[in-house]
Write a structure and sequence with these properties.
CATH class: Mainly Beta
Shape: globular
CATH topology: Methylamine Dehydrogenase, Chain H
Structural class: mainly beta
Number of helices: 1
Oligomer: single chain
Strand content: 35-45%
CATH architecture: 7 Propeller
Radius of gyration: 20 Å
Largest sheet: 5 strands, mixed
Number of domains: 1
Length: 444
């Protein structure tokens, strides 16, 4: 297929009426967690990455319809989240709102709603709607609304997202999932037998909310009185956490995709040995469509969400990725304790009859890839020279071939920590790293 044609034919889910723009409203692009965007990226002749230096690591970089960039970052000083409002013309922070510290990853998973407010949960245990406005004294960030989430003692929300039903769906560190009615009560269920945990994000679609715990994947729907577990599918979580993963179990955010409605299927990866597998389920009833081992034994593990559109799923290895010790200090021990990070990416095509591997490459991807459907290009960050060189890589989704490389940075402060980049409507790509973020703009 020629460059510029759609990477994978098929529709997406209809836009979520309670979320901001598809592609920039959530960490994984849209409510379905497809990690795709309708916008073209900065292209082969992009300018080298421009640093926006902050005293924080920035995994969540979003933008609403007003174009202002909202970066939710974890501060080094106290490991608490802060929201930075960044001017998309000068790339300078114009406002900051510090939030209460919680879990190390607490506050990372957030989204922008249909009113351009950032919706998140901080260490207080309350959902906060953060609004921004320009005043005579400059920009400011305010708490527009706040709502406690009524959970048992010791539990905390780790991720949340906008449901198509108008509710705010969430999952917790101790394996509960449910929704909050804006201005009202909280309803939830306990996943499995009560021993499960949720360490990754959730996805929502017109078919319901998908949650993957460290034991199983669920599809949930709201009812007049609570939460309905439509289906549960256990997976092989392996004997231990793999090096290059942050928890013991799947590293996946479940992803809705499909050639007919955009939410025909739900995809995750398990934690099996010696090779991890892609698992694809029918969204309606949870019936397994296929399972297929991914990559080679030396690289078969991923902490990253699948990228999926139409019939195609793209996966990047994180096996052995050298995360900072702080990222895994509360995690189960890894087995083996360490491994070389060799990288690798793969494309798998799904049909009603099963899955097949389309290609595998050796790109050492250091970020969750983002598929530009307009450009028909996968964007990721290439780590090389033992972690000394970082480059924005453009990958042909039809062949896996590297199309171009653009300089991002040198040295450990340029480490992108497997965080996802965000592409803005003008083609600018924003990539979080250890020292804030990098801005990659189209040339011209």
């Amino acid at each position: 297929m020629a460059l510029g044609a759609p990477a994978s034919a098929g529709p997406g889910e209809p836009p979520n009426p309670y979320a901001g723009p598809d592609g920039t409203a959530g960490m994984h692009g849209d409510s379905a967690a497809s990690d795709t965007t309708a916008w073209a990226g900065p292209g082969a002749e992009a300018r080298p990455g421009w640093p926006v230096t902050l005293p924080a690591v920035c995994p969540t970089i979003l933008a609403g319809r007003d174009g202002m960039v909202q970066a939710l970052c974890t501060e080094y000083a106290d490991r608490a989240p802060s929201l930075y409002l960044i001017d998309p013309h000068t790339w300078l922070p114009v406002a900051r709102r510090h939030l209460k510290a919680g879990d190390l990853l607490g506050g990372v998973y957030a989204y922008i709603d249909h009113r351009d407010r950032l919706v998140t949960v901080d260490g207080s245990g309350s959902i906060r709607w953060l609004d921004h406005e320009r005043t005579a004294l400059g920009w400011r960030i305010t708490v527009d609304q706040e709502q406690p989430v009524d959970l048992p003692e010791g539990d905390a929300v780790t991720t949340l997202g906008p449901g198509y039903d108008g509710h705010i769906w969430f999952a917790t560190s101790q394996g509960r999932a449910g929704y909050a009615v804006a201005g009202g009560e909280t309803r939830f269920v306990t996943l499995g037998d009560g021993s499960e945990k949720v360490a990754n994000s959730i996805a929502t679609s017109t078919r319901g909310t998908a949650v993957t715990s460290d034991h199983a994947t669920y599809l949930l729907r709201s009812t007049a009185t609570g939460v309905d577990v439509v289906w549960r599918r256990a997976y092989d979580r392996g004997p231990a956490r793999k090096p290059g993963q942050l928890s013991w179990g799947s590293g996946s955010t479940p992803t809705f995709f499909g050639p007919r409605s955009g939410s025909d299927y739900v995809a995750i990866t398990d934690n099996a040995r010696p090779r991890e597998r892609l698992l694809v389920y029918r969204a309606d009833d949870g019936r397994e469509v296929c399972r297929l081992p991914i990559l080679g034994p030396e690289s078969s593990g991923t902490e990253n969400s699948p990228v999926a559109w139409g019939r195609s799923v793209y996966l990047a290895s994180t096996y052995g990725y050298p995360y900072p010790a702080q990222a895994t200090e509360h995690a189960d021990p890894a087995d083996p304790e360490k491994a070389d990070f060799v990288g690798g990416m793969t494309r798998i095509d799904v049909s009603p009859d099963g899955c097949r591997t389309r290609w595998t490459n050796d790109t050492a991807s250091a970020a969750v890839p983002r598929l530009s459907r307009e450009e028909n290009v996968l964007y990721t960050v290439k780590r090389s020279a033992g972690g000394w060189r970082w480059q924005l890589a453009r990958i042909d989704p039809e062949t896996g071939r590297e199309l171009s490389l653009t300089h991002l940075g040198l040295g450990p402060l340029a480490d992108t920590l497997q965080m996802v980049g965000t592409i803005l409507p003008d083609g600018t790509l924003l990539q979080g790293n250890i020292a804030g973020l990098r801005v990659v703009r189209p040339r011209g």
